[in-house]
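Hello,

I think I submitted the pyridoxal-5'-phosphate job twice by accident. Can you confirm which output corresponds to this input? Input:
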Amino acid sequence: MSIEDFSPNVEHLEPSSTLVLAARARALKADGVPVVDLSAGEPQYASPAFALQAATSAIEAGKTGYPPTSGLPELRQAIAAYLTETTATTAVDPTEVIVSAGVKQALFNCCYALFGEGDEVLIPTPYWVSYPALVDLAGAKSVFVDTAWDDGLLVSVEQLEAARSSKTRGLLLNSPSNPSGAVYDLKHLTEILVWAAEHDIWVLSDEIYRRLAYENAAPSVFDIPDRGDHVILLDGVSKAFCMPGFRIGYAVGPEQLIRKTTDLQGQTTSGAAGPSQYAAAAALNQSDAREAFVTNLVSQLHILRDIGISRLQAIDAIEVQPAPGALYFYVKLLDDSKSSMEVAEDLLLNGLVASVPGEPFGSPGHLRFNFAVERPVLEEGLERITAFFE
Ligand SMILES: Cc1ncc(COP(=O)(O)O)c(C=O)c1O
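Support: Only one job matched these inputs. Its output is below.
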């Protein structure tokens, strides 16, 4: 047996391309190449001081034992309270919440627990890079549903229905979207949930960017009272609270599913790190400080978004989506003589800007730029992007 004879479990597994590109930009920078890195999907801001303090205090107080597998009771309670405060849902019970090591693990748990051999899971395109891999690891099949640029890259019920088969068991929805920044309004989201409920399709609603919306608030599936019992909300502290390194995410859904994913987590990771959970509980619990943090973050990002959109709109060779939410400019390349992979490569080596090409999002011909960076960095990046395309 060769050292590369891995099991079929990981046969199709590829490294996360956004992480690979960010690592490449970092390596160039380390070699002294002055790259402007707009590739990573990470807000480049400090975490809330009150959350950091909570983690330090927990460590100093010796709270370093195994936390309960489904999460610390105070964090599950804080998540339940946060959702009742910030969505139209009037009651979330902590037993409906599981804490995991990031939304990534929460998504993995749900996919693994719900989908398997013979199942199909609908994924609107463009999608977050990890969705197909997560569905694949569960043994199920991703069915990609194309969206149109002129519809703001939002999927319609008609498009979902056209992609549905008797094997369809799930839908991965992401609003605001990574990479497109698209946001589903409440009516649209309700139509999708009604359609999914009619066909017993699980909706995994990845709301990690919910609070990062610039025109109108981005609705949650928890804003819909009649959402049925096949809906799971996934969120975490990586984006709106600038705490990605803490690795805290959560899934909220029917108690039976939470129990099963707790069993899965109990046999795999034993859950998320304790000090991180104390930090996340502090971030969510202190409502005034929490809301002040998010409001300040959103107003800074709003300025960056507006600067970037107007600069990108002025470039003839591309079109850009308006980015009503999330952290990204999603750009269509009007010249199709080169693949977006080649253009991203060229832009990195000759324009000295790191981006992510559309291929790993299932939409070749596009580029994604993260705008959650310091303003001078973004302005320098935009300057270089303009020079590159012109
Ligand atoms: C759409 C989406 N979901 C989930 C994640 C992962 O979040 P976490 O850091 O909580 O694992 C990301 C991170 O970029 C994301 O863009």
